[in-house]
Amino acid sequence: MFGSSNRRTIIAKGLRIVGSVTAEGLVEVSGQVDGELHCTSLSISRGAQVSGIINAELVVVDGSVDGPIQGHDVLLKSRAHVVDDIQHQSLSIEKGA
Q: Which of 38, 3, 8, 44 is nearest to 20 (CA)?
């Protein structure tokens, strides 16, 4: 689902980043990001929080996002909570999101 890139960045539970994050490959957020996120693929885990602009080809949300999402493919999983606009080519929403 996230491609074959070996580049992976993990923002672990308990870690809070304030500012802009730019990375190639997959970024997995289990903690908190206050600022912009620019990456190839983004996974926001259940319980994780992002406040700010998201820009990625693939965005999977199972946590909380307060800010606009710009993505090619966006999947909102059952526990996703998004407050703002979502710009997408493809949008999938699971029951409960």
A: 38
